[in-house]
Model the fold of this input.
Amino acid sequence: MNCRHVRRDLSAYLDGELEPRRHADLRAHLDGCAGCSEVLRELRALHSELRSLPTVPLLAHAPAAARARPAPVWRSMTVAAAAVELVVLAVWVGAGLSRHTTTAPMPAIATPPVPQVAAAAGAAPSPPGARAMRPAAPLRHPRVVRRPERPTTPPQRSAANGPADSTPPPHKTVPPAQQVVAVYEAGLTLAEGGSVGDALRTLCREVPPVRPPVEDGAFAPQALAAMGNLSHARVIYEGRLTRLTGTADELPIADRARLAACDKMLVRDQPTVLAMYLAAKERELDE
Amino acid sequence: MNVPESCGDQTTQASLVQAARDGDAQALGALLDCHRPLILAVAWRLTGDRDAAEDVVQEALVRTLRALPGLREAAAFRPWLLRITVRLCLSLPRRMATQAAPLPELTDPDTPESLLLQSERTRLIEAALLRLPPRHRVLLILRDVEDLSYAEMADVLGCSSNAVKVRLSRARELFRQRARGLLCEEVEDA
Done:
C-alpha cells in the first residue's frame, strides 16, 4: 500500500467506511508514515470544524427578531400591493360563487384599511393580473363581514403546531364570504413574510381542510400552497428590486424577467386556484 | 439522516407525507415547516447568498408540492426534497454565470451567531468552503455539515455509495488544500 492509495482512502477511513481488511492495512501504513498521518490529522481537524460551523440563522423563521426592527419601506408597499391584489381576487371569486348560492343583495365585503391607504398613495404597482380581471361585483351575503382581528403575537412554533396537532378541526359551516376573508388573511400572512405553513394554518383556522375525492382532482391544497409561494416569491423579488436599485428599470434583466414571470404565474394560477378552492368549499356546504 | 424533532419520528413523518398526499392542508403545512430549515440551510451554504437561497427554497417547495402526489414511498420524501434543492442550487451558476460568488455573509449582525463567526478561523473555513466548486462543496455540506450517511448522500445525489466515497475524498482533499492556503495567507498577512 503506497502513499497515493492511502491518501485516496483517508476520507473513507475518517468516516469508518472502509472494509476491515483495508482499514487494518491503512492503519499499519499510518503507523510508519508521518506524511500521511499529518494529512489525516488535517482532514480530521477540518471535518471537526465543519461539523461545528454555526447554524445558518433562519431569518425567515425568526418573527420575534424580524418584527423588533422597523419594517423596510418596500415591505409595507408590497404587503399593501399583495393585500389589494388578494382582496380584488377574493371578491371577484366570491362574487362568482355567490351568484350560484345566495339571492339577497348585500353590501360588498368590508375592505381593510391598509390596502385602501396604499392604493390611494399609489405606493406600489399592483400586478397586472389584478387589473386585468373582471370588475368586482357586490358580494351577496346576509351580513357584512369584517376582517378578523390579526393576532398580536407571532404564531407559536411549538409542538402545538407540529404533527401532534395536525388533526383537522371539527367540521363547521363557513359562509362563503368568511372563506374569502380567510383566503385574504392567508395571503396577507405570506406577504408579511410568514411561511406557507403559517398561511395554511391561517386558512385552516377559519376553514376546515378540504379533502376532495381522489377522482375529482379539480383541487389540491398543494396548488393552494403553490399559489402562496408565488405570492411570497413576488414579494421577495420586489423587495430585492427596491433594496438593490430603488427602481424596476435598473434591475438586472434576468431579475426583471423573473419578476415578470412571477406576475404571469400569479395571473394564471391565482384565480384558478381560488375558484377551485371556493368551489370545493361550496360543494361541502351544499352537502 | 436524522429527522428534525419538529417533524416527529420517522413514523409520524411518513404519516404526515401520506396525509399531505391525500389532501390534508394542515399536514402539508407541518411537513413544509419542519423541512424548510434544512433545505434553506443547505441552499444558503451552497449558494452563499441568502436571497438566492430563498429563491431556491421557494422553487423547491413548489416543485415538491406539484410532484407530491406521484411520490411512491413516504419515507423517501426528505432525500427527494434535498435532491430537488441541491439540483436547483447546482444549476444556479449556469443561470447566473455573470455574477461572481460573494464571500459568505451568513449571519444577521444582530444575532449571537455573528459574534461566533468573527472567530477568524471559522471565517476562513467558511470562505474556503464557499470557494470550492459547487459540485465539491455539496459533498462537504451534506456529509460534514448536515451529517448525512453515504447511502443518504447517494440517494440525494443520484449516484452509488461508492461514487460518493470517491467524490467525497476528492472534495475533502481539495478543501484541505484551499483551507491550508487561506490559513497560510492569513498568517503571512499577520
